Amino acid sequence: MDTLLHFVALILHIDKFLGDFVHQYGAWVYAVLFLIVFCETGLVVLPFLPGDSLLFIGGAFCATGEMSLPSLIALLLVASIGGNSLNYLIGRAIGPKVFNTHIPILERFLDRAALQKTHNFYERHGGKTIVLARFIPVVRTFAPFVAGVSDMRMGRFQFFNVTGAALWVLLLVLAGYFFGNIPFIRQYLNLIVLVGVGAAIVPVALAAAYKLLRKKSSGHIASNGGSR
Questions:
Q1: Could you write out the three-class secondary structure of 117-157?
Q2: What is the pTM of this model?
């Protein structure tokens, strides 16, 4: 519980944390930002890392001269492209094996039809998914992994991976660079970050809930129809 509270406090005061780190360790901040972004996008078990807010605040520090804008953008592009690539390769490596374990208990719970549907979805809409997922916390961590599991073509994945990374890094870092030090935004930065995260997650959650309710409703109707 204490660890969770410390993590929440870190998210809410990420600007102070980053400022203290820059003042104490200087250029090591680039390595820290690189590692956080790489892990958030590259390791499916770390979707909770604060990528969006770090990019925005990093841009704000570039505006004050405490960090280099070209260096930050270059490092974050490498981190985000490399992270997604690793995540995709992990999904591609372990995905088929998971569905071919020949272990009766697992075979009962794993749905190959769902995997095929996911594959078909990524063949049709995978590009948009990879790009748009960059701007949705948690989803951006799972999207490349699912693309790998569903065997999305490597060349197609990398095109949209690079495109999404460029849009994500440039938009957020430059937004921080131009607007991050405006007094009003600086004063309410934590609230803005939370609103931004909520605005990204809530529509996804509502869409998932609607789909789940619709599926349950269809199953209920089918069940009633079959019982007559």
A1: HHHHHHHHHHHHHHHHHCCCCCHHHHHHHHHHHCCCCHHHH
A2: 0.72
